[in-house]
Design goal:
alpha/beta, Carbamate kinase, globular, about 15% strand, 8 helices, homohexamer
Chain lengths: ~230, ~230, ~230, ~230, ~230, ~230
């Protein structure tokens, strides 16, 4: 039996035209290595710059935020579909459109690739809920920064990357809005609370570094490791 | 053309065995009056005590929080289904299982009744997102308290019910966890942020008082009115 | 390869608030024992008192019988969802909404839990049709009586529990409306005729007795055993 | 607002190769006349000889009765699809696969055409449940006999066609298996009990006679009229 | 009753980053003008450069053509979703995933926006089949050229734009692979044959010119008009 | 791991009433032999005479070609359903309604049986796209002729059956409309182009000869073998 694990890949990691092919290839190779090592991952892919560009058009034309969310979700699903095509027979062939479909797909034994699920919820939250549903203890979050900092390193020269922290500390950073892991969205609070309630371990890795996701899962080496509270 | 409006009915209002029939009948009559007055409501029903009882069993058997959420969602959908049966031909005949289905159902011109949507999201959040999607400016939230208080009136004798407040003030209450409108759940923060981003008006009413939902929609009389920031 | 078997659990067995958790836990443990013994069960759960309570409200508000049936089906699906949550990774993650979904779900190799299917058909009939579809030869029917009686033991002191009977005898009892196995519904006739046409074996067991379902499947010990006609 | 009505067309009426086109054309014209007269029909079409031929193959190859039922349902759906094609823009474009879809389709205001729904249930039962769901008071049943007889006219020369009977009398005929309206199937008992519980009026007409369905709906002239019990 | 019409918008018209917002806004305004003039359009949007970029990645990673098609379809659906968001309440809220869904959506009376449907079929073919299904006589094809030429104007200085041609002439151009309307794909042959078998009128317009789609529908002015054969 | 293979069975092979049962039984036995030999087939069944008869009625009543296509697809799905019933537990229990469903179904490890997919596409094209999607290198096409001829043998006495040809030669035959393999439909061009782009091997066999499909797959003996171009 393969071990369940969830991998969140930030959309920004595959947004730039020049790295799209290179990065998708690299991530897919890493995913297959992780499968070979005895894991069955659910991969959740963000929408990145593609999402921002399309949502921007909808928003400027004055449309409701929920409709904009639906556009962003569709962009993340296009990214997910690309991963599915590149993973070939190792991937479940469809992008799940609900959590029920996601769990059914996971039951096939294949790699499941999801984008966003619905308005009012980030792909980070999708990854956290997916971890609960498939019984994964580890959630790897690949972004384009090295890990979690005490403050925004671009603005605060005293900002320090944390190697290890508790979920409670993570939640506090998120709540005061000073959580610098590549996304500043509201709904990371949802993700953080799901992580808290189910005592998941979260490994933040720098997705720009080849092999970083694999290292986090197999060797438990990562940028910042978030662990459940002691006791 | 009917005006879109969203009505959230707290599950606790229909939980007690002795009032189930009486309250469902009363709410359905109110809903039909609201339809007659030129509105097309989306009604979102919570799971209440039924949800708590079933979720309690799943949780004690040690199951994941997301699986528990799915049980709670199913309970709210049973409540929604009961409203649909009682509204007869005025209701869209199915409980929507996704936001896309909800908007499609609203397009039928009938009253749509929804329960929860997915793990990690309260029925309050569903109501707020539904308001965005159907273009409703008003969201009526019927609970079993009279409105929003500055503190929990049961614990703090100086607690005062607020007749009117801004969304920003609502958000602050929710964020410091001192929001007493019958539910203390995490995800009301999601609901509040959706209300904020789309500048919705929210009317909190005491659902135990006959006619309170109708008054909020038609006469704009309610327990607490939450309005977008000035300017 | 696991052997297919169908287990019908009467909703009344999990209706009382005080036994809900205890009985669901007990049934789930029994189901896992049955899985370990080499069977792959489809479990069909009734709606019980929950169903009756909700259907009662819809009916008093004057709604059509088919709409009432839909309410009762939703109640049985909530019960099914609770079993799924409690069975965790051993269960197929969704409640099937059609027979096609049920058979697809069975193909996953997991325990499938279903409620009712559609208006005009009892969960007994669902269990019988499910047995045909998955090729099960045995259908275990757990109710809150000890077996099939010649008459209603509460009214007729000469009523005798039958240890063994033919399907033909079962059908005759059902047809004259004197079949006392916990349910007096019309559509048990449908169930009985399905049992007849496919020559299924039906074991009626007292679901209040721990281990009774397991005994029926593994040891072929039960309250009343209904066997196909000789010859 | 159009009045809801249900029309059951026996598959045998369109089975013979030489009358297929002629009868489908005729029925579609009648249906459009009925629409023009202010009705919105749900049409339920049986599988007829096509169904029997295909089911016969499956049964001889030793397959389960439920799988055979699924083949028969697919045959009735092909017949339904043909009606949809021939009704063009007046028909809802899909054959409903569940009662929920049927009611949603009816909400479109178009003519809905259905075949069978699921194993263990005849198209007569589908028609009766559909009547409950859409609130139709009248169910027209077009077969290839003139009406309901006291016995099989081919075997009993004293058999008399009944012009009018109560549902109770219908139920008695069905229960003693002496109901000669073109189908001898078990599940007509289900249909009859649904008719009874909802006090529907059923008009049996001879579908071979042009205009007979229209007459039954508009002029209330039919072969046998089954009415709810008095008082 | 609004008149049905199909509008195909080439993905290249909205591909360039700098014109995305401007062109989507312009097309949506035109679509609403067309609605006001009494038409109910089905809009089919291509995938354009977005599709090419994503399909390119999948293809270089050595994946099957059908999987690449699925990626391209998802890209066109993202474009369709953007139109839906920008059309707001005038659009059917979902991108249809099959022709049955497309026709159901059209039945809602709203503007339907579709992308591609399935592997092995271009969005031109989708537009042609959609025209058949909704009974549209006119199919407007907006590309980034002025109309149909006798040869590729970039390569052949004697190439002449045709103002009017028969479907037969169109088919001949497509068959000899010398059809210069912005797309050289195989499946335009499918589209052309569908146009032929249903005798549709096709108006090719230069989508870069504001108002060109509207002119084609309302004033019948276009780059090249393809008409059914005489007689 | 079983090897993927696609088998197209022309509907005409099971159309005649007298051979329906015999041929379906024979094909199912061959399919199970092929499964035993280590293959996992996707079987695509045409509509044959049943399809033609029903489409003929729809067309004479003046309905659109796309609606006629939908009728023909439904007929092929009835044939597919019959195969599913006869294959019993070896078959995936549903007829896929989209390519995504087809690939999901193939992931179950069972024999998948499909009919047509959508308007404007033949079952030959479905078979070719299915081969791409499941990664099959061989597509067996069983018709009621012995193989591919240089001309129609009924009209041209010099017509010669080709034992082996390249895809390019196949495409040329199809393009000039002189491809005699039992179907003269437009969309075989689509099928041929899909075969070309993915360099599939196609084996045409005479489905009237028992064992011909099995021979083609296991022994590579067939009427005409179409191979990718050299080099």
């Amino acid at each position: 039996m393969s071990k369940p694990v969830v991998i969140k890949i930030g959309g920004h990691l595959i947004s730039a035209e020049e790295v799209l092919k290179e990065n998708v290839r690299r991530f897919c190779e890493e995913i297959l290595d992780i499968v070979s090592a005895g894991y069955q991952p659910v991969v959740v892919v963000g929408g990145g710059a593609l999402s921002r560009r399309y949502v921007g058009v909808a928003r400027e034309l004055g449309r409701s935020e929920a409709l904009c969310d639906l556009v962003g979700i569709e962009a993340s699903r296009l990214n997910a579909r690309l991963f599915i095509a590149c993973l070939g027979k190792y991937a479940y062939p469809s992008v799940p459109r609900s959590y029920e479909e996601l769990v059914q797909a996971h039951g096939s034994g294949k790699v499941v690739v999801s984008g966003g699920m619905q308005p009012g919820q980030s792909t980070n939250a999708v990854a956290a809920v997916a971890a609960e549903l498939i019984g994964a203890e580890l959630l790897v979050n690949a972004t384009n920064v090295e890990g979690v900092y005490t403050a925004d390193p671009k603005e605060d020269p005293t900002a320090v990357k944390l190697d290890r922290m508790t979920i409670r500390e993570l939640l506090e950073l998120v709540e005061k809005g000073s959580f610098y892991a590549g996304s500043y969205e509201l709904f990371d609070l949802v993700a953080a609370r799901v992580v808290e309630r189910s005592r998941l371990t979260v490994a933040f890795v720098d997705g720009r570094v080849p092999g970083s996701i694999k290292s986090a899962i197999i060797d438990r080496i990562c940028g910042t490791l978030v662990v459940p509270e002691e006791g």
